[in-house]
Automatic annotation (TrEMBL), chain A:
<dbReference type="InterPro" id="IPR006058">
    <property type="entry name" value="2Fe2S_fd_BS"/>
</dbReference>
<dbReference type="GO" id="GO:0071949">
    <property type="term" value="F:FAD binding"/>
</dbReference>
<dbReference type="InterPro" id="IPR036010">
    <property type="entry name" value="2Fe-2S_ferredoxin-like_sf"/>
</dbReference>
<dbReference type="InterPro" id="IPR051312">
    <property type="entry name" value="Diverse_Substr_Oxidored"/>
</dbReference>
<dbReference type="InterPro" id="IPR001041">
    <property type="entry name" value="2Fe-2S_ferredoxin-type"/>
</dbReference>
<dbReference type="Pfam" id="PF00111">
    <property type="entry name" value="Fer2"/>
</dbReference>
<feature type="domain" description="2Fe-2S ferredoxin-type">
    <location>
        <begin position="7"/>
        <end position="90"/>
    </location>
</feature>
<dbReference type="InterPro" id="IPR016167">
    <property type="entry name" value="FAD-bd_PCMH_sub1"/>
</dbReference>
<dbReference type="GO" id="GO:0051537">
    <property type="term" value="F:2 iron, 2 sulfur cluster binding"/>
</dbReference>
TrEMBL record, chain B:
<keyword id="KW-0560">Oxidoreductase</keyword>
<keyword id="KW-0001">2Fe-2S</keyword>
<feature type="domain" description="Aldehyde oxidase/xanthine dehydrogenase a/b hammerhead">
    <location>
        <begin position="27"/>
        <end position="133"/>
    </location>
</feature>
<dbReference type="GO" id="GO:0004854">
    <property type="term" value="F:xanthine dehydrogenase activity"/>
</dbReference>
<dbReference type="GO" id="GO:0051537">
    <property type="term" value="F:2 iron, 2 sulfur cluster binding"/>
</dbReference>
<dbReference type="InterPro" id="IPR000674">
    <property type="entry name" value="Ald_Oxase/Xan_DH_a/b"/>
</dbReference>
<protein>
    <submittedName>
        <fullName>Xanthine dehydrogenase large subunit</fullName>
        <ecNumber>1.17.1.4</ecNumber>
    </submittedName>
</protein>
<keyword id="KW-0411">Iron-sulfur</keyword>
<dbReference type="Pfam" id="PF20256">
    <property type="entry name" value="MoCoBD_2"/>
</dbReference>
Length: 487, 804
């Protein structure tokens, strides 16, 4: 491993050294300790967005994209070599940034505590390269200026009721000529670079290559692997977890590719949900349904597909969809690679077949795709909530009969699982209300849902059955055969 | 028009303007208490040791191991308290308890060089507990007859006789949940001993004077040795009226014992598990109607779930009783109220302060009874609105009932309610799996503290020799825009442009003996006190100006920084020059202002009097769409007309209405406080103790189309510059959302279905409601009953109906 450069982060244009930083120090605590107190801690688990800042990340339609992230979830060490902009860097009270100006004059702040976070999330949307003004397709979530309100789905305000913030968002123009942050997006993003920071016996390491990473994992099986670190942050902040070694894999090129092959699409484990969403651009309809329901934009900007599978939570949003897509998991280790069906991957509550020295390199989605798909997430809140139950569907109906059915479930057992009995109740039968009602009764009995603060077991079961009825109601017609996906 | 309410020409009040700190908010330059830590060298950090029991005796506390953790400086225990070991004004809240009264109760605090050291130190403290039986639900408390405080009784006429003679009588039971404040800024205090030997506490508090009193009594010193400052709060909503005191006292105790500044900031989980919330209530009721749907009589018993100590539960209960009528005339009424004592956080003030709970009982029963009476719920509500000069059950005339009607009619007209309801009926006919509903509900909310003594305020206004003005007042800024309004009041009263007036942070050494910034009264009280101070100065300056201009002081006018007579011929003099002249004439250029609300009287023992200066009025119409597969819903459109008097600051007032409405909708439809009510090892633990499990409204819950108007021609004689209070009343406009959900759920069933709806009306609660409506033969076993470990607030209660 090459000797890392002196660690440091560029904040609002100033390069600040990362010295004496503990491996568990979040970017938020570090920024606030440096006197940049604009970003606030509201929840310390990536739910409220009061800590939102912008990071220069590789873009999908421009070389660099200002990306909003929850500073409370990111180890500051992971920002080594990167560029960060906070509310203080966007403007000052005597020289407001356009986003700040609109929010200020329209009553977008009351107590003001959440406001710097809103400013950063909205500024990221202001600079989003794909944002184009349109007079059509406007609704209460999409402004005539191309602003997608989902950019703020991870920001909570307890005072305003949001209306003035929406008005401010929809009133924004485009960055002016000479806007330095807009210009920055046209330059390459900061290069990934190796990092090793050790304080008080705890280390943060970002290896340079996959080979180094795998060697390190073999040598140190206790290593905590992080990519977007959206789970790491919660563990550190709320449960006091202090791992002796944190290994960051989010910049490894082998984990960041998305490619269309003849028989499958391969999605790199370290691609963020936002990156996958933008790169796929609707070409996998089931995932296109999933993305807007997956946490918030702030979380999707950091969370990776590999991380969502790696934590093996029974209520992760991706597994039900991926199970319906019949996904495979590609596991890499110094011994080589192996491919495991996702349906065989989960073995128990937060337990999987992955060995300590194995790294999820990617996910493979077989082609062609089933034509009739759906992703149903049941939660109290429409934006940014954890599912009570989630159901992914991929069905093929030929000549009015179900010829193939894959149904993935989350929230009904200790692991995500396939609704095998329901699939059996559908396959070979006509796609009719009668079939669906019978199968819905089977689906309602799948798994062993539990009672908790999110939902009662009886509601969870009822929602499983209702879900299939809803799918049928949405797709009462039979569909054409398998669909080719343009690469 | 009274002198208090009269506006001069060209007033600064009434101009829409952004929050005075808006530019600081958006840039992150606005400082909050915890942002000050980096400015104060050597600050220690405090961390609580929270008990893992719901009710237990502390039999031993051994801090020794904490001192083995590097960086731990001090463990604070009861032995360290030089004064009174109590955090409240009722002396029922030991600061360091020997009896754990709720899950997460802090038994001692650890101070560390870093937060990490304090946290690890707290984990190392050894505590022995002897667990005791606990009461977690209000039902358990009622069964065990576990009550606290004074029960209250409100009565007019003979409700029992009236019910006997009523054509239609219904009774029911309704239990509903409380609400977590979830101010974005958690509780925080930063205490130090200043250069003068005085204890200075920066605290995120709505009630600096009471924080000062509690800190002083814990430290065993007189109040003049303690100063509390509140620069601004990151939200409060009532949650920082009483609750900050104990945390401020811990920080102050640590600072005096160690000689170093101490910061105590709760993280979200600590805040949610330790601090009080809106009271959940249990209610039983009997109501009688005549054949036209007029309410004849109401009997009700309200039981507030007070948690482990009294805090503000008694006044919350009093306000609930006073607001059970909401905006409706109830000729004969008898309401009993009591406070249950449970092993939960000590529930406290929350925007509306019991008013929402009382009114919810009424709105819920109207929504349930309307189909049984065969009357459209919208018409049932309209028909029962107060008429001019009818009186409330506690004997106060409703002098502006015409405004209720005006709001109602304006919402119905501008909201095109009749047309839209016809469209909704058509839509519902065509869509078997999706239904819409539209409901209108009114609000009539009494303004003033029920306790008459609290209705006073002070201000301190300085005019410096250069003509610049600095104002101080006793109110605190929590985001509601009070300081913005106060700047506008001062500028108006002195006839100055806004730029000449600056506002300094709220401090107990500037204005003493203040009331909490609460009860929506901040602008009424402090605005009048500032106006009083400014007028004293203005009158003195008028004398000087009269001399200079050769006119009577009575004819001197102050406008936009220029002072002149009634006639242009008398000439003019600039403000700065006048101030300078006055200084050299040795005229006092500063003044203390004071205000007491006139005309209030209240006898809490018989619950009669005129406790309120006036009522705030408003009406909302909400339209929802409900998905029959899941119970999920969207809020399609909301129309509101609300009475804020002559607005002091319209942009601020609109913001209060919208924000209050959405917060109310959160309480009624989404926010789901759950305690573990099982007999398992976590009994009594708050299950929803983080933002990931306790969901407040996000963008997805705001109305897709949100139309808020201020009632016009709404001058209020009794308040500063003709304005009205606005902080709390709009929260209760959100009843319209819950009632619209009830109507949409009913639309899944046969016409005239009476729907029993859980509160909060989460998608799950709505689903069960609509599922019962569309399958009338569904078994009685309410699905939520099977919801082990869930607060019964899920269930709407099991009303037994009987027509007569």
């Amino acid at each position: 491993m090459s000797t890392p450069a002196t660690p440091g982060v560029t904040v609002n244009g100033d390069r600040l050294p990362l010295t004496g930083v503990a491996a568990h120090t979040t970017a938020l605590d570090w920024l606030r300790g440096r006197g940049l107190t604009g970003a606030k801690e509201g929840c310390a688990e990536g739910e409220c967005g009061a800590c939102s800042v912008m990071v220069a990340r590789p873009g999908t339609t421009s070389p660099t994209e200002w990306t909003s992230v929850n500073a409370c979830l990111v180890p500051v060490a992971a920002l080594d070599g990167q560029e960060v902009v906070t509310s203080e860097g966007l403007g000052s009270s005597s020289d407001l940034h356009p986003v700040q100006q609109e929010l200020a004059v329209r009553g977008g702040s009351q107590c003001g505590y959440c406001t710097p976070g809103f400013v950063c999330s909205l500024a990221a949307e202001f600079y989003r390269p794909g944002r184009v003004a349109t007079d059509e397709a406007c609704d209460h979530e999409h402004g005539p200026n191309g602003v997608d309100l989902h950019a703020l789905s991870g920001n909570l305000c307890r005072c305003t009721g949001y209306r003035p913030i929406r008005d401010a968002a929809f009133a924004l123009g485009s960055p002016e000529d000479g806007d330095a942050l807009a210009a920055r997006q046209q330059q390459p993003p900061p290069e990934p670079r190796p990092t090793r920071i050790a304080v008080d016996g705890a280390e943060f390491v970002r290896p340079e290559t996959l080979t180094e990473t795998l060697a390190l994992l073999t040598e140190r099986p206790e290593a905590q692997i992080v990519a977007g670190s959206t789970d790491w942050g919660v563990e550190v902040n709320l449960r006091g977890r202090r791992a002796p070694l944190v290994v960051a894999v989010d910049r490894l090129p082998e984990l960041r590719e998305l490619s269309f092959r003849t028989d499958y699409v391969e999605v790199g484990a370290a691609l963020t949900l936002t990156e996958i969403e933008r790169k796929l651009n609707g070409r996998i309809p089931l995932l296109a349904e999933l993305f807007p329901q997956f946490a918030s934009r702030l979380i999707r900007n950091s969370a990776t597909i590999g991380g969502n599978i790696g934590t093996a939570s029974p209520i992760g949003d991706a597994p039900p969809a991926l199970l319906a897509l019949d996904a495979d998991v590609v596991l890499a280790s110094p011994r080589g690679e192996r491919v495991v069906a996702l349906a065989d991957y989960f073995t128990g509550y937060r337990e999987t077949v992955r060995a300590a020295d194995e790294l999820i390199r990617g996910v493979r989605l077989p082609l062609p795709l089933a034509p009739l798909v759906g992703f149903h997430k049941i939660a109290k809140r429409r934006f940014d909530d954890i599912s009570s139950v989630a159901v992914g569907y991929a069905l093929e109906i030929t000549d009015g009969a179900v010829v193939q059915a894959r149904i993935g479930l989350g929230g009904v057992a200790a692991t995500p699982l396939r609704a095998v009995a329901t699939e059996d109740a559908l396959v070979g039968r006509p796609w009719t209300e009668e079939t669906v009602r019978r199968a819905a009764a089977v689906l309602a009995e799948e798994g062993t849902p539990m009672d908790d603060h999110r939902a009662s077991a009886s509601y969870r079961s009822a929602m499983l059955g209702q879900s299939l009825l809803r799918l049928f109601h949405t797709h009462p017609q039979t569909h054409p055969g398998r669909q080719e996906v343009p690469a | 028009m009274s002198a208090l309410s009269e506006r001069p020409d060209n007033p600064i009040v009434g101009i829409p303007m952004p929050h005075e700190s808006a530019a600081l908010h958006v840039t992150g330059e606005a400082l909050y208490t915890d942002d000050l830590v980096g400015r104060i060298a050597g600050t220690l950090h405090a961390w609580p040791v929270q008990a893992p029991h719901t009710h237990a005796l502390v039999t031993a506390l051994r801090p020794e191991k904490a001192y083995e953790v590097p960086g731990v400086v001090r463990v604070l225990t009861a032995d360290d308290v030089p004064g009174v070991n109590d955090a409240g004004v009722k002396h029922d809240e030991p600061l360091f308890p020997t009896e754990v009264m709720f899950h997460g109760h802090a038994v001692c605090w650890v101070l560390g060089e870093t937060q990490e050291a304090a946290r690890l130190g707290a984990a190392a403290v050894e505590v022995d507990y002897e667990p005791l039986p606990s009461l977690v639900t209000v039902q358990e408390a009622i069964a065990a007859e576990s009550f606290q405080g004074t029960p209250r009784h409100l009565e007019r006429g003979d409700a029992e006789a009236a019910l006997e003679g009523a054509a239609h009588v219904f009774d029911g039971e309704f239990e509903f949940a409380g609400q977590e404040h979830f101010y974005l800024e958690t509780h925080v205090s930063l205490a130090l001993v200043d250069e003068g030997g005085q204890v200075l506490v920066h605290s995120s508090t709505q009630h600096p004077s009471e924080t000062q009193e509690i800190v002083a009594h814990v430290l065993g010193v007189p109040s003049h040795e303690v100063t509390v400052q509140c620069l601004r709060m990151g939200g409060a909503f009532g949650g920082k009226e009483m609750q900050p005191h104990g945390y401020a006292a811990i920080a102050a105790l640590g600072a005096t014992l160690t000689g170093r500044p101490v910061r105590l900031r709760l993280n979200r989980t600590q805040d949610m598990t330790m601090s009080g919330k809106r009271h959940g209530f249990h209610s039983t009721w009997r109501v009688g109607f005549d054949d036209e749907g007029h309410i004849l009589a109401l009997e009700a018993t309200l039981t507030a779930d007070g948690g482990w100590s009294l805090d503000l539960s008694e006044p919350v209960l009093a306000r609930a009783l006073c607001h059970i009528d909401n905006a409706y005339w109830v000729p004969d009424i008898r309401v009993d109220g009591r406070v249950a004592r449970t092993n939960k956080t000590s529930q406290t003030a929350f925007r509306g302060f019991g008013g929402p709970q009382g009114m919810l009982v009424m709105e819920d029963l109207l929504g349930r009874c309307a189909p049984l009476l065969g009357i459209d719920p919208l018409e049932l509500r309209r028909r029962n609105l107060y008429q001019q000069d009818q009186t409330t059950p506690y004997g106060q005339p409703v002098r502006q009932a015409d405004r209720l009607t005006a709001c109602w009619n304006q919402v119905a007209d501008s909201g095109e309610v009749a047309r839209r309801r016809a469209e909704i009926a058509e839509f519902n006919h065509r869509h078997p799996h999706t239904k819409r509903g539209l409901a209108m509900t009114p609000v009539k909310f009494g303004i003033s503290f029920n306790l008459t003594a609290f209705n006073q305020a002070g201000a301190l206004v300085h005019v410096y020799k250069d003509g610049s003005v600095l104002i101080n007042h006793g109110g605190t800024e929590m985001g509601q825009g009070l300081h913005t309004k106060m700047l506008q009041v001062a500028a108006t009263a002195l006839g100055l442009p806004l730029s000449r007036v600056r506002l300094a942070p709220t401090r107990t050494d500037k204005v003493p003996n203040t009331s909490a910034t609460a009860a929506s009264s901040g602008a009424d009280l402090n605005g009048a006190a500032i106006k009083n101070a400014c007028e004293q100065i203005r009158e003195r300056l008028a004398q000087v100006a009269g001399g200079r201009l050769g006119i009577s002081p009575n004819d001197v006018r102050f406008d936009d920084g220029v002072v002149r007579g009634l006639s242009p011929a008398s000439g003019e003099i600039g403000w700065n020059e006048l101030v300078n002249t006055a200084y050299h004439q040795r005229v006092q250029l500063w003044a203390a202002g004071f205000y007491r609300t006139e005309g209030l009287h209240w006898d809490p023992n018989v619950m009669q009097g005129e406790p309120f200066k006036y009522f705030a009025n408003g009406v909302a119409a909400s339209e929802v769409e409900v998905d029959g597969f899941t119970g999920a819903y969207t809020l399609r459109r909301v129309d509101i007309v609300h009475d804020v008097g002559d607005s002091l600051s319209p942009l601020i007032d609109i913001g209060q209405i919208e924000g209050g409405f959405v917060q109310g909708a959160g309480w009624l439809t989404l926010e789901d406080l759950r305690w573990d009510t099982s007999d398992g090892p976590n009994r009594g633990r708050l299950a929803t103790q983080a933002a990931s499990t306790y969901k407040l409204p996000s963008f997805s819950e705001m109305p897709e189309d949100f139309r808020v108007k201020l009632l016009e021609k709404a001058h209020e004689e009794g308040a500063v510059y003709g304005s009205k209070a606005v902080g709390e009343p709009p929260l209760m406009l959100a009843f319209s959302v819950r009632e619209a959900l009830r109507e949409a759920a009913a639309a899944f069933g046969p016409a005239g279905s009476s729907v029993d709806l859980g509160c909060p009306a989460t998608p799950e609660a709505v689903y069960w409601a609509l599922d019962r409506a569309r399958t009338p033969q569904a078994p009685e076993a309410a699905p939520s009953d099977a919801d082990a470990g869930a607060e019964p607030a899920m269930a709407g209660g099991c009303a037994s109906w009987r027509g007569k």
